[in-house]
Amino acid sequence: ALWQILWVNPSAHPSSGKFISNTSGHKKHPVEAIQSRVGTVASELLSQLQDWNNRRQFTPPSDFHADGVNDYFISQAVTEGTKAHDILKQAPFLIPFTSRVKIFTSQLASVRHRQEAHGVFTRNRFRIRRDHILEDAYNQMSALSEEDLRGLIRVTFVNEFGVEEAGIDGGGIFKDFMENITRAAFDVQYGLFKETADHLLYPNPGSGMIHEQHLQFFHFLGSLLAKAMFEGILVDIPFATFFLSKLKQKYNYLNDLPSLDPELYRHLIFLKHYKEDISGLELYFVIVNNEYGEQTEEELLPGGKNIRVTNENVITFIHLVSNHRLNFQIRQQSTHFLRGFQQLMRKEWIDMFNEHELQLLISGSLDSLDVDDLRQNTNYAGGYHGEHYVIDMFWEVLKSFSLENQKKFLKAAGSASEEALDRLPTSATCMNLLKLPPYGSKEQLETKLLYAINADAGFDLS
Asked: Which UniProt keywords apply (predicted)?
C-alpha cells in the first residue's frame, strides 16, 4: 500500500476542486495533501517497525520489500530530485538490498566520472614497508584530502630486506595493502579497538592510554574504511552493531546495549522489573571503569556517589548506564572515526542501509561464495574458454572447497601471488589474473590449487 502511495499513484486526484497551500507556498489539492501526509506517517511507522525487526528478526527483511522495483526505478533513484530518489530517502526498506547496492555503486561511479570530467582525478603513489605497514601508511596518507582519497592510490611494497617487490599495481596490490593494513589496525592487540564476547569490534575506550595520537588514528582508519567501500574492496572487519549505528549517525539507547554487553543489559533489565526495595541493593549513581587493570569510578550525575538508586529513579539510572557505555565512553573515538569516514561516504548513501546491510557492504557475506556468479563474470584467455575441460575441473574444485579455502582463493586471486614451482596455479594479482596450467586430472588441480592458496607471499615471487 505504501509503495502504491509513493510510487505507483503518488499524485492521483480529481481534475478540479479546491486547493490548499503547504508551508512552502505551493498549492496542493486536498486529496494530494492527505495522500502525502499518509505516505509520510506510514513511512515513519514502517521505519520504526523495521528498526525493531533489525534487532528482533521476527520476519524476513524481504517482507518489507515492494514488488514493483525495476531497472527504471533504479536508474531514476540515482538522480537527486527525482521521485524515486525521494522514495529511497523516505522509505529505503521498500527497495530490495541488491537494488540499493546497484544504486549505491552507480552513485559512486557518478562521483568518479564528475571528478574525471573536471580534470581533478588525482593519482598518488606510496612506498610502504610490509613490516611497518600501519606506521608508513599513516605517515604518508593521513593528510590526504577528499579529492586525493577519491583519486587513484597506488602502492609499492618494500620487503623485509628493503627491496621493492616486483609488480605493477593495477589494483591488486592496493587490495592487498587494504587487507593487510586493516588487519593490523583493527587487531585488538594494537589497542585501538576492542571486541565483544561475539568477537565484534568497537573503539577501545582506553585507546588514549596506549597511543598518544589515537584520535588522529581513528580519523585515518575512518577514511581508510570509506576508501575501501568507495573502491568496492571488501575487508574483514566485523563491527559491533551499535558501532555501525554510529556510522549512520544514530544515537544508541538501552535496546542497543546487547550488541556491546548482553550481561550488563540483562542486569539492567533485572533492575527495571525488580519488585522489592531497590535501595536495599546499595547501588549509587556511579559506574566503575576497568581499563588495563586500572579501576576508576565515574559519577553518572553530579554528586552521583551520594545518590542511591531507588524504585523512583531506577529508570534514570538504567538509561544513564546505557548512555555511558554506548556513547559517552567512546564519543571522541567515534566522532573522529566518523569524520574520516565521511570524507568519502555521504550520509544519504549510508542511510540507504540498515546496520546488517552496512556490514555486508564492508565485508561481504560470511555464509558462502557464489561460485556460479563468479564463473559467469570471468573472462578467459591463453586458449581457455568457458567449456574447456580444465576450466570445468577448476570450477568443480572451487565449489567443493570449504568456505575458508574459498576465501583464501579470493585473496590469492585478488591480492597475493606465488612462485610457479612445479607449475602451480599462480596469480598475476596486480592485474587480478589467475594463471592456470593445463592439469590432467581434477585431483592434481585440487592439490596444486590448495598448495597455492595456502602459501603466503608478496608480489616479488610472481
From this structure: Transferase, Ubl conjugation pathway
Containing domain of residue 449, as a range? 371-461
Cα–Cα distance, 374 to 40 (Å, whole number): 41
For residue 271, give the CATH number of its domain.
Answer: 3.30.2160.10
- Do residues 218 and 359 both lie within one domain? yes
3-state secondary structure of 308: strand
Same domain, 306 and 190: no
Please, what is the Cα angle at 308 between 273 and 298, to 5 degrees?
105
What single-letter DSSP state applies at residue 445? H
| DSSP string covering 82-145 | SHHHHHHHH-GGGS-HHHHHHHHHHHHHHHHHHHHHTT---EEEEEEEGGGHHHHHHHHHTT--
Contacts of 48 (CB under 8 A, 6+ apart): none
Say if 116 falls within a structural domain: no
- Compute the distance between CA of residue 153 and CA of residue 14 in angstroms, rounded to an integer: 57
- The neighbouring-strand residues paired with 284 are 308
Query: How far, in Å, CA of 366 to CA of 3, rounded?
Result: 31
pTM of the model as a whole: 0.78
Q: Which residue has the cell 568443480?
A: 396
Per-residue confidence band for 118, with pLDDT thresholds at 50, 70 and 90? low
Q: Distance between CA 253 and CA 366 in Å, rounded?
A: 28
User: Which CATH number does the domain housing residue 229 bear?
Assistant: 3.90.1750.10
Known catalytic residue at 379? no
8, pLDDT greater than 60? no
458 against 88, higher pLDDT:
88
Q: What was the pLDDT predicted at 14?
A: 37
C-alpha cell at 363: 565485508
Domain boundary among 275, 307, 329: 329
pLDDT: which is higher, 255 or 67? 255
Strand stretches in 116-238, DSSP E: 123-129, 152-158, 193-195, 201-203
What band does 340 get if pLDDT is binned at 50, 70 and 90? very high
First to last CA, the chain: 58
Amino acid at 432: N
Given 225, 234, 430, 436, the catalytic residue = 430
Q: How many domains does the chain have?
A: 4
